[in-house]
Design a protein that fits this description.
By secondary structure, the chain is mainly α. It contains 5 helices and 4 strands. The chain has a single domain, classed as Hypothetical Protein Ta1238, Chain: A (Up-down Bundle), CATH 1.20.1200. Helices cover 64% and strands 6% of the residues. The strands form 2 sheets. Strands 1-2 form a two-stranded antiparallel ribbon. It has a two-stranded antiparallel sheet with strand order 3-4. A hairpin with a 5-residue loop joins strand 1 and strand 2.
Length: 171
């Protein structure tokens, strides 16, 4: 399959549904944000311990499924309760290790800074998917997933800082 098709040269792109939409549409905005998040996760994983690298790789696969859901206007929905529960279990595990009680300054290590950038992109992505949910009626599980993902990324960054004794609490 060729990469250059020239079908997008007039500012439109195709969805899984066969529909053509403007490249600046809310659907493409959300998918572009997911793609950007996936790229930043790909960069971050090279700075993480093996246990967290494996988590990010699984998340990257799930993000492809989210993009398919968005590009199909919700008709292809593979990320759901099971994936959300997995994120929540990871969050809980890291919360127990961390026992965070105050606000923290982000980015005390290179690895945590990379995860903080991912978290911020995940939050922006969440906002763009919220628009799809509220204005177009699809993407509810994707929205929940992205919310939990940003929480997990926050916790992973703080755990790295704690393990390296570089957690900077704001008092």
């Amino acid at each position: 399959m060729p990469i250059t098709t020239k079908t997008g040269d007039k500012g439109l792109t195709g969805l899984f549904t066969g529909d053509r939409v403007a490249k600046y549409s809310p659907i493409m905005d959300a998918n572009g944000n997911i793609d950007e998040l996936d790229s930043f996760l790909g960069e971050a994983k090279h700075h993480l311990p093996e246990e967290m690298r494996e988590i990010l790789e699984r998340i990257q696969v799930q993000l492809y499924d989210l993009m398919a859901e968005i590009a199909s206007k919700g008709k292809y929905a593979k990320v759901g309760d099971e994936e959300i529960k997995w994120l929540e279990e990871l969050i809980q595990r890291y919360e127990e290790e961390l026992q965070l009680k105050t606000f923290v300054l982000p980015g005390s290590t290179v690895a945590s800074a990379k995860l903080d950038v991912c978290r911020a992109v995940a939050r922006r992505t969440e906002r763009s998917v919220a628009r799809l949910v509220l204005d177009y009626g699809f993407g509810q599980k994707a929205l929940i997933y992205l919310n939990r993902l940003s929480d997990l990324l926050f916790m992973m960054a703080r755990v790295i800082e704690k393990r390296e004794e570089k957690l900077k609490e704001v008092k």
